[in-house]
Amino acid sequence: VQLQASGGGLVQAGGSLRLSCAASGCTFSAYTMTWFRQAPGKEREFVAAISWGGGSIYYADSVKGRFTISGDNAKNTVYLQMNGLKPEDTAVYYCAARSGTYSRDFQAYIYWGQGTQVTVSS
Prior knowledge:
By secondary structure, the chain is mostly beta strands. The chain is 0% helix and 53% strand.
């Protein structure tokens, strides 16, 4: 399984970005696709997950109502639409995949993308 993340960048507070994670070597609908993020000096934290081709969706409380995770089964791609960005959203964002049910524990994932930097200026 290979994951390719893209879409990060620099944005002002209140702005928007859309991250993409293209997956190959797996059947998207059979995997949980998850976004994590890691800020400098902090542990990697769960952001959002989508399972069963979109049948189940989960969010961290800190992003609920601002971020939207979605998937395109035909393209084997998961997206993270981020609106209302705040400086505290600044981090490297990683997509990850695991077979079966979702987990908020990054140690439960063995497939990882390379990370994409999101920087939100105040």
